[in-house]
Amino acid sequence: MIAISYIEWSDDTIKRFRKKLLTWYDENKRDLPWRKDTNPYHVFISEIMLQQTQVNTVIDYYLKFIEAFPTVFDLAQAPEDKLMAVWQGLGYYSRARNMQAAAQQIVFDYKGQWPKTAKELEKLKGIGPYTSCAIASISFGEVEPAIDGNAFRVFARLLKIEDDIAKPKTKTIFYDIVKKIIDPNRPGDFNQAIMDLGSSYMRAKNPLIEQSPVYEFDASGQDGTCLNYPVKTKKKPPQKIPYYGFIIKTSEGYLMEKRPKTGILANFLMFPLVKKTLTEIESFENYFKSNYAVEIKNAQLSDDLKVIHTFTHQQWQISLVVADLVAFDNSNFIEVTSEELDYLNLSALQKKMNKILA
DNA sequence: AATACGTGGGC
DNA sequence: TGCCCAAGTAT
């Protein structure tokens, strides 16, 4: 058993830290659209969008989303295409579906009344340990630390916490530490102040160490080791997967395929993709006919047309094949006009392929 | 516990 | 370029 050590603060230090942090926050907090009030619906929408997504990216999406679905009731009854129209391009699309499921839970299971504790909030779809604590603290004043990437980094640096934040059990270590430090009188502001601190002075790269408002509490900043924190083991690089991507021309546009209901880019319309396997496809025409009941002709593999798209865990290397449609008998496929391509709900990958057509 | 799940930006 | 990151959750 290795003893994990980190800096421990006295009660007095904790009190001075809260005061310093919140004073700084009161004077310097970012003016963000979801900070105009503490309406739980607003906090909920922003927190879901902010999962693994940067503030600058979220701002426009948030404004459009609130305009399209002003209340939890609007979201609960929204048609899927309208929901996806607002979310397209943001990524992690299950967030949008879970978010609507959560809205329906609020409306039907909770009669429109938001639960006020992290424990209850975590029962909602798409709301986990971080988001439940964020909503509970910001909207309802519950004293719960919201441990996100910022909190990991800020407290790891302040206290020189050596635990690997890539390991799930480390979350409870940080939770227990921050639970003692969080200001019981202003838990929501405390959590948000830590996030603002983590995105400015104590950012991942190029931190502003000595100018930090809490430099006097910053152990790793003072001894020049702050870039060693937080400790985090590296993830595996994305697996490279070669595909053929088919641009199948129709009289007025292209043939598209509806992706499976589960998995990556679920339900999106996309140009048909076929994994390249060890056994080379002998003929694109025969492949489409026997596998999809889709008849094509003039299939031409282009060495110039390649699209590389990197997800978190996969990199798709797509070699494009141009062909002409003859006929098809498969409900998973649909003819789309060139004009429709411009306003359909599409993934960033499909939009990347669209650009090649122009 | 480990992996699936998107995207855009920075260096 | 390739790698890492950015307010995580579900399974």
From TrEMBL:
InterPro entries (UniProt xref): A/G_AdeGlyc_MutY, DNA_glycosylase, HhH-GPD_domain, HhH_base_excis_C, MIG/MutY, MutY_C, NUDIX_hydrolase-like_dom_sf
Domain HhH-GPD: 49-200
Cofactor note: Binds 1 [4Fe-4S] cluster.
Listed CDD domains: ENDO3c (cd00056), NUDIX_DNA_Glycosylase_C-MutY (cd03431)
This enzyme's EC code(s): 3.2.2.31
UniProt cofactor(s): [4Fe-4S] cluster
Pfam families associated with the record: HhH-GPD, NUDIX_4
Record bears the keyword NADP: no
GO biological process: base-excision repair; mismatch repair
GO MF, one annotated term: 4 iron, 4 sulfur cluster binding
Reaction(s) catalysed by this chain's protein: Hydrolyzes free adenine bases from 7,8-dihydro-8-oxoguanine:adenine mismatched double-stranded DNA, leaving an apurinic site
Keyword tags: 4Fe-4S, DNA damage, DNA repair, Glycosidase, Hydrolase, Iron, Iron-sulfur, Metal-binding
Similarity comment text for this entry: Belongs to the Nth/MutY family.
UniProt cross-references to PANTHER family, sorted A to Z: ADENINE DNA GLYCOSYLASE
Function: Adenine glycosylase active on G-A mispairs. MutY also corrects error-prone DNA synthesis past GO lesions which are due to the oxidatively damaged form of guanine: 7,8-dihydro-8-oxoguanine (8-oxo-dGTP).
Protein name: Adenine DNA glycosylase
